[in-house]
Amino acid sequence: MDLYLLRRLPPLEANVGKRLVKSSKLYLRDSGLVHALLGLRTLEDLLAHPVVGRSYEGFVVENLLQVLPEGGEAYFYRTRAGAEVDLVLLLPGGRLWAVEVKRSLDPRPSRGFHEALKDLKPQEAFVIYPGGETFPVGGGSLRRSPWGDDGAALEEVSARPRVSRPGSIRPHCPCW
What we know:
The chain has 176 residues and is α/β, with parallel strands linked by helices. Helix content is 27%, strand content 23%. It has helices at residues 31-37, 43-47, 52-66, 111-120, 147-157; strands at residues 6-9, 25-28, 73-78, 84-90, 96-101, 124-129, 135-136, 142-146.
């Protein structure tokens, strides 16, 4: 029986000639539940707690997967050498997107993210953060943008979106 409390994100098993991490990532699907269980009642409580980054990552992953087109698949990518992408989306038609989630208002992709992009060669790469601007980061197709913009892009990929536009998605917790 699946109560839809946990999201298991499997590792992408790419043939890149490197040793990959093979264990799945687990997320509690409802960030509001996580915050309630931890006794985090205010935004200040949350921002002072070490769970803030992981909670935000889970929130973004869960909302993006709600608008993933039918037939799309979600993974994460990590090598033993430190190359990592928080969310790898395999979209219908064979397109590959890489998504990095950062809680900071001035996020900087890590060297491991750039190394993973070299390994995976995605058609699109995003750094999603809680800010309000969209602008280039580094070279190529890597963009830094607020998470809602990328959810809208996913909806455009799908002929039949599963939920309403991301701008209308409200977090389970008033903290996000």
